[in-house]
Write a structure and sequence with these properties.
Length: about 80
C-alpha cells in the first residue's frame, strides 16, 4: 500500500519564479486600478455609458479573482 505522507521525488513540482509571480501580481493590480477608474468615470458621467461601465466592472472582478487565486497558489500566508 502506498504511504500518502511519503515524499516521492518523481512528483516534484518546479517552484514558480518569484520574479514572474511579482510581475503577474503587479500587472493584475495595475489592470484592476485602471478598470476601477474607468468604471468610476463611466458611472459619474452617466448617460449612455453602458458599453463602458459593465465591461470595466467585469475586468475588475476578473482581476480580483486572479489576485485571490494567485495568493492561494503561491502559498503565502
Amino acid at each position: 500500500m502506498d504511504d500518502p505522507y511519503r515524499i516521492d521525488p518523481r512528483e516534484r513540482r518546479r517552484p514558480a519564479s518569484r520574479r514572474n509571480g511579482r510581475a503577474l501580481r503587479a500587472l493584475l493590480w495595475t489592470i484592476l486600478v485602471i478598470a476601477v477608474s474607468v468604471n468610476i468615470v463611466a458611472s459619474t458621467i452617466g448617460r449612455g455609458n453602458l458599453l463602458i461601465g459593465p465591461p470595466s466592472g467585469l475586468v475588475a472582478v476578473a482581476c480580483i479573482i486572479g489576485l485571490i487565486v494567485h495568493h492561494v497558489r503561491s502559498g503565502r500566508r
